Amino acid sequence: MSQKEDLILVYDLGTTGCKVVAFTPKGRVVASHYEKLKTYQRHPTWVEQKPEEWKAAIRKGTKILLKEKKITPNQIKCISISGTQMGAVPVNDKGRPLREYTIMHFDYRSSAQAKKLIENMSGFDNFYKIHGLGHPPENLSICKVMWIKDSERKIYEDAYKFLQSKDFIALYLTQRFVTDYTDASNTGWLNIERREYSEDILEAAGIDVEKLPEIHDSHDIIGYVTKKASRETGLKMGTPVAIGAGDTPATCLGAGIIKEGVCYSYIGGANWNGVCSTKPILDPLIRMINLCHPIPGKYNVFSFTPSGGIIQDWFVDSFYRREGTAERNMYSKDSFGIMNQEISKTSLGALGLICLPYLRGGGGPHWNPNARGAFLGVSILHKRRHFLRASLEGVAFSFRWVMEQTEKAGFPVLKWRELRDVGGGAKNKYWLKIYSDVLGMKLSVLENPQEVTSLGAAIAAAVGVGFHKDYEASVKEMVRISTIILPNLKSTKIYDEIYGIYKEAFHTLTPIFEKIAHIQSHL
After folding, report:
1. At residue 333, does pLDDT exceed 80?
2. DSSP 73-140
3. Would you state the pLDDT for residue 268?
4. How would you classify residue 70: left for phi > 0, otherwise alpha for psi between -120 and 50, otherwise beta?
5. Each residue of 79-120: pLDDT tens digit?
6. Among 193, 316, 340, 504, which residue is least crowded by beta carbons within 10 Å?
7. Rounded Cα–Cα distance for residues 236 and 77 (Å)
8. CB-based contact 168:160 (threshold 8 Å)
9. How confident is the model at residue 510 (pLDDT cuts 50, 70, 90)?
10. What count of other Cβ atoms lies within 10 Å of the Cβ of residue 379?
11. Cβ neighbour number for residue 161 with a 10 Å cutoff
12. Alpha-carbon distance 134 to 363, whole Å?
């Protein structure tokens, strides 16, 4: 690599870790480093992380990337950020977080506040038609802030601003208290059509608009690396910082989805599909999620299930690491390789074993936070590998259900016959084949699929700093497809029958899920 090559540095805060990725203006990954982040669950319905650990990951990851890849700070012409959404990080006017633990997206503690807010808005439909978010309301930032106000009043009163994860990193780098439209639109307090804070919703929630940050476009240069941040990270003081985008819209952009006709699937901890639209879809019966696209005036319309790649992590932790034997080292070093070997030896349908993969509650299209995981049809013939394959098939079925929801919204995605696959799960060719067969669709796998969210933030920065004249030119230059996977239509026909049983099983078990969730909330 030429020491004079210009680079864009991206920080991507995910659920499980922080990536630091260096891109060229042509979208090539020069270097990438991953720092694992810890998630804390101090109560069955609580999901938290520590913002100070985000900063530590940024500092450590940047220094390692610069040193090991021999990147000079002068090469970095712009920094951009993506991160998990639907958080609520309270900070004071000095930028210090007021809670050691910050509430994350899949935290369900604010159900009472969600109920109160919906009542104050005279029903969910009125609430939804303003913000356009199909999530369970207790997932939204606005309900998390209401919970803080009700349960930790002093923290609410002392809070200067409530930020999202990427905004907190932007604050660390620049000392600017800002957000962007993609993140602001996934909080519950933005009017999605007007692209401004909703007075009606904030009044119903009892939240002061002064506690919310200034909103920018994703490509805006919102500040420059401060002397303190430079000293702690090794970055050059004065390096421009683009605010970037929340992880979902950043992924949409990084997949090259900037017009209708192609959709994408992200297989990460969660799994979602998305399209680009010129308008939000605000039918509460369909209940799509509408976010501002990084491109001004466009929207990322999508739905998701929280059950995606997280099931692989659960399988490794639960069934592919053994204690007290020599086999333990083998399983810890190459668990995913062993899992793929077992998948390749297991026939379609896993001998009739069906998995409902809702380990973290259910997303679209049913939006039932009380949904739970289940295996059905277990017999004495089933081995570990059958449970594994059934789990991966179950995630694909849940995604097909989400795709059908998108079709009801007016986007014939299953008829488009192409799906761009991104995320860490897109590296697993066996799982992608399952997806292709379950959906009956051609899958286009992007180059470096695990870096596509980061790439979306880099594309925005490339526009903001002037590497490319606009988003269309930036996407054309930076997005590339590496692999095509075609479905086996005979397998699709078999999966069609299993999929019908899968949906029937979910509906049948819904009353049981409610009872189990009630018990779990009191344990």
Report:
1. no
2. GGGEEEEEEEE--S-BEEE-TTS-BS-SSEE-TT--TTHHHHHHHHHHTTSHHHHHHHH---S-GGGS
3. 79
4. left
5. 999 999 999 999 999 999 999 999 998 898 999 999 999 999
6. 504
7. 10
8. no
9. very high
10. 9
11. 21
12. 9
Q: What is the pLDDT of residues 23-72, one digit of tens each?
A: 999 999 999 999 999 999 888 789 999 999 999 999 999 999 999 999 99
What are the structure tokens assigned to 267, written together? 């297989």
Computed over every residue of the chain, the mean pLDDT equals 93
d(CA 500, CA 397): 9
The DSSP letter of residue 213 is: P
Question: Would you state the torsion angle of the CA atoms of residues 210, 211, 213, 215, taken in this order, to the nearest 10 degrees?
Answer: -50
Asked whether 350 and 395 are in contact (CB, 8 A), the reply is no
Residue appearing with tokens 């192609």: 262
Q: For the chain, what percent of residues have pLDDT higher than 70?
A: 97
Q: Quick one: pLDDT at residue 326?
A: 43
SS3 content of the chain, % helix, strand, coil (to 5): 45, 20, 35
Rounded to whole angstroms, the Cα distance separating 157 from 153 reads 6
pLDDT band at 324 (very low <50, low <70, confident <90, very high): very low
Q: Which residues contact 44 (CB under 8 A, 6 or more apart)?
A: 520, 521, 523
SS3 276: strand
Would you say 161 and 103 are in contact if contact means Cβ atoms under 8 Å apart? no
Distance CA 244, CA 170 (A): 9
Determine the Cα–Cα distance for residues 391 and 373; give it in Å rounded to an integer.
10
The pTM for the full model equals 0.90
Note whether 453 and 251 are within 8 A (CB): yes
